[in-house]
Write a structure and sequence with these properties.
By secondary structure, the chain is α/β, with parallel strands linked by helices. It has 7 helices and 5 strands. The chain has 2 domains: 62 residues, no CATH class; 135 residues, HUPs (Rossmann fold). Helix 1 crosses helix 7.
C-alpha cells in the first residue's frame, strides 16, 4: 500500500475510532507519567510557549538539571529556527542559566526525527533518564515514538504542558482540539504501520 493510500485509510480509520469512543478518544491521547528526577528535559518543537514553560517548571522543581532545545535546522551555518531562539529567550526571561540549556542541531520535521536526535545525544553523553515535554494531546504518540527509538536507553518519561488548553473531555467542542485529535489518531496508525512494523 502506498503511503498516500495508507494516510487516507488511516484518516478514515481514525474518524471511526474516535466516533466509537467519544470522550475516551481524547483522554486516551493524554499520558501522565509519574514524575521522577531525570538528567534532562527535552522540549519538543511545536506549541509555544506552554512547552518551554513546562520545562522551566521542571528545572525549577529540581526534576531536570538540563533543558534540551532543538534548533530544527540541518545546516549549522544557516542558524537555528526562530522557535529555538524564542524558547531560549523565554528561558532567559525566567533566569535559567545559559549553561543549563543544551542545543541539539539537526533537521527535525517530525516527532520521529526529534526522538532520534534526543536519544542519540543521551546515549553519547551517558544520560540515563529524559523527560520529554510536549503538548498534552501529543503525549501518547510522543511517548510511543521515543520509547520505540530509545528501547530503554535512555529511560523516557513524558510530561504534558500544564498550560496546554486541550480539553480531553470535550475535544469535539473546539475545531482546534477536534483537528488535533483526528490528526493524532491518523499519525498513530501511520506510526504503527510504518515505523513500528505492525501489519
Amino acid at each position: 500500500m502506498s503511503r498516500r493510500r495508507y494516510a487516507v485509510s488511516a484518516a478514515v480509520a481514525a474518524v471511526l475510532v474516535i466516533l466509537a469512543f467519544g470522550a475516551f478518544g481524547g483522554h486516551w491521547l493524554v499520558v501522565d507519567d509519574a514524575l521522577t528526577k531525570a538528567d534532562a528535559a527535552a522540549v519538543l518543537n511545536g506549541s509555544f510557549p506552554d512547552r518551554v514553560l513546562e520545562a522551566i517548571t521542571l528545572f525549577q522543581g529540581g526534576y531536570a538539571p538540563r533543558l534540551v532545545l532543538l534548533t530544527a535546522r540541518d545546516d549549522p551555518d544557516s542558524g537555528p529556527a526562530p522557535a529555538y531562539w524564542a524558547n531560549r529567550q523565554v528561558a532567559a526571561n525566567f533566569g535559567i542559566p545559559a549553561e543549563v540549556l543544551v542545543s541539539l542541531v539537526g533537521r527535525t520535521p517530525n516527532t520521529q526525527t526529534e526522538a532520534r536526535l534526543v536519544v542519540q545525544w543521551a546515549r553519547d553523553g551517558g544520560v540515563s533518564r529524559v523527560i520529554v515535554v510536549t503538548s498534552r494531546w501529543h503525549t501518547r504518540r510522543a511517548g510511543l515514538i521515543f520509547a520505540h527509538e530509545a528501547r530503554g536507553r535512555p529511560h523516557i518519561l513524558v510530561q504534558g504542558a500544564r498550560l496546554d488548553t486541550f480539553d480531553a473531555a470535550r475535544w469535539w467542542a473546539s475545531w482546534r482540539d477536534a483537528a488535533r485529535v483526528l490528526s493524532e489518531y491518523a499519525k498513530l496508525l501511520y506510526f504503527c504501520r510504518v515505523y513500528a512494523g505492525l501489519p
